[in-house]
Amino acid sequence: MTVFSLINRSSGFVLIAGVFLVSLSCGPEAAHAETAKVGAPSSKKATTKEGKAAPSQANRFNRLFKGAAGFNLPPTEDGIHDPDSVGTQALQPPKQAFEDLPKGKAGNRVDWVQALDIGVIQPRTDKAGTGKAMTVLDLNIVREVKGSMPDVVYPHKPHTKWLQCSNCHPKIFIPKKGANKISMAAILAGQYCGVCHGKVAFPISECRLCHSKNKTKEQIAAQSTKHVSARTQAARTEAKGTTAPAAAAKPDSVLDDMSVTNLMKLGQTIYTDICSGCHGDKGQGVPGTFPALKGSKIASGDPAKHIDVVVNGRPETAMQPWKEDLNAQEIAAVITFERASWGNAGGPVQPRQVHAAISGGKAAEPPAPKSAPVKAVEKEASAKAKTATLSKEQLMSQGAAVYAENCSACHGEKGEGVPDVAPPLKGSKIVSGPIDKHIEIVLNGRPETAMQAWNEILSPEATAAVITFERNSWGNAAGDTVQPSEIAKGR
Amino acid sequence: MVKILKRILLGVAVVAVGLFPAWVRNAANAEYGDVVINNYSDGAQMAPAVFPHWFHRIRFRCKVCHADLGFEFKAGGNDITMLKIFDGEFCGACHNGQIAWSVENCPLCHTGKPGTKTKVHTNTLLLVAPAAKAAGK
User: Model ipTM?
Assistant: First the structure.
């Protein structure tokens, strides 16, 4: 890689010739530019189907990202390079380099992951280009998210083809399930995924590349109990009082009018818990992406409109319908809170108004809280089924498979580990020492290291098998075995 | 006839845009991931350096610079100076005439427009900067 690879073939052109060439050959592009220019202001005047003016910035999410004409401009036209500099004119234009690469929808308009996978680029894994292989970890982390938004599937595989564990762990992500308070607001502010996504890796406009695991209707319904935090659940109980314990199941039974104080109290908890992730802890929103509620016309205007947006969501935006996650009382409370906070001047809303909107719209099924306990029972039953006693041979053969799939990426195929990243298991004191410590580390992980807790990922049987395998492989001679039932006890 | 007129108008518009002083035009058209590094350049009467991520990621995995060479994931967060580069740190780890062209090619990096701020351009954070500020983050 020398300076010559940098030199643009067209570097000989002087600026004026370049302009001449552009004016002759780039008609279609210029047309795009024109459209884009005209398109931006006119979209402000865009009207909804009902003929009303489009609400503020609410639906402008993807429109903030440039059209095709704004992408891959040569350095002389990109606005940050000095077009008069000899250096600028010598640089390779991105378009030329991207010609043979698979196309992407955003960012550089290159699908970098695919480019690497199909081998059209072969970026070095160290500066000298020794060809040393990357330590690729094939492990998906599913992150459940609120509402009907598809869950996030985080794939380690494409990430570890570019990066090593220490790039992200433990500085950006604590390698422990549930330890990272990730929200879209934090990502947009450049934290967590936003350290790279939005700057170098594909931007956050590509929602579905991460939010890729669709929920079933049942799952969305089950979330009414599962997805609301303990804090909100406590507030629910408190608001309902001890006299109506069954209220959670039947929205109809919580339709009594509430005092504004109680509405505000419940509403604040729910707002902080559910809404603030996008709309901001002070209702400030995220300009251009998630609308502010502070000073919002909806939050100060007709309550029916406000109820409609919260109950049914906003199609084709990130605003989810909340009628299946929250009951009428909770929706009324959070709407009241929004209408009376941050200087907003809307009046309170009562549960019966929300209920009318829910039942007046499409026949909304009440949430099915029963499905959650049923699931738990099933889970327990399946856990019991998996606690049968296994022979050492069975444990060893199954353990080898579990190890290869989940552990070998860091600890090595033969337990040799990866220097500075993951300790060898071959000859390890823990693996040859007391078995309880070994089990404890596998189940709960090691805080502040890349060793994560496996208790929610592996079944008791798989855990028992892999521990037995580790203790009796590569010269480790602990000789003991562990049964699934012992693991189930420890979880 | 109308078509021809449109073409002519379009051509004129394109020439006008092309001749417009570059500093008037929008820096939001920078290639995705381009980082302007202007920690010291302006003060030293030198054009700011522009680092094109795309060019480098065709040739190197992220980890080579961000783990092996110790570049922080933050524009302006590395306190890079020419002295360090001469000593083989940061860019100087490769830009030494052996792996990549060496540092005497000043204008190949120092191509930025004077006064351009240190940051990752076309960054989605730019969309939320006012909100982040308001929230005191």
Answer: 0.78
| Separation of alpha carbons A180 and B17, rounded Å | 47
CATH topology of domain A228-359: Cytochrome Bc1 Complex; Chain D, domain 2 (1.10.760)
Chain B closest-CA separation from residue A394 CA (Å): 39
Give the residue from chain A lying closest to B75, CA to CA: A199
pTM, two decimal places: 0.55
**Helix A460-471 with A435-444: angle, nearest 10 deg:** 130
- The fold of A6-211 is Cytochrome C3 (3.90.10)
- Encode B72-99: b = buried (16+ Cβ within 10 Å), e = exposed: ebebbebebebeebeeeebbbbbbeeeb
Phi, psi of A197 (to 5 degrees): -75, 115
Q: Which residue of A has its CA nearest to B90?
A: A127
Contact: A87, B93; criterion CB under 8 Å? no
Select the more confidently predicted residue: A283 or A14: A283
- Do B107 and A70 make contact, defined as CB atoms within 8 angstroms? no
pLDDT beyond 90 at A32: no
Please report the number of interchain residue pairs, chain A to chain B, with beta-carbon separation below 8 angstroms. Answer: 219
CATH number for domain A374-490, candidates 3.40.50.2300, 1.10.760.10, 3.80.10.10, 2.30.30.30: 1.10.760.10
* Chain A residues within 8 A of B26 when measuring between CB atoms: 79
The domains found in chain B, sorted by start residue, are: 28-125 (3.90.10.10)
Report whether A95 contacts A76 (CB < 8 A).
no
Which residues 32-61 of chain B have a CB within 8 Å of chain A? 32-34, 36, 47, 50, 52-55, 57-61
Chain A: give the shortest CA distance to residue B84, in Å: 18
CA-nearest of A336, A327, A353 to A261 is A336
Residue A277 — φ and ψ, nearest 5°?
-55, -40
Which positions 58-117 of B are in contact with A (Cβ < 8 Å)? 58-64, 66-69, 73, 93-94, 99-101, 105-114, 116
pLDDT value of residue A80 = 93
* Residue A151 DSSP class: E
Q: A143-193, pLDDT tens digit by residue?
A: 888 777 889 999 999 999 999 988 998 889 887 767 788 888 788 888 999
Asked whether the beta carbons of A137 and A409 are under 8 A apart, the reply is: yes
Q: Are the Cβ atoms of A123 and B57 closer than 8 angstroms?
A: yes
- Type of residue numbered A450: A
Residue of A nearest to B133 (CA): A189
**DSSP for residue A286:** B
DSSP A340-385: TSTT--PPP--HHHHHHHHHHSS-PPPP-TTHHHHHHHHHHHHHHH
| Chain-centroid distance, C-alpha A432 | 39
What pLDDT shows up at residue A53?
Answer: 44
**Are A189 and B29 in contact (CB < 8 Å)?**
no
Domain boundaries, chain A: 6-211, 228-359, 374-490
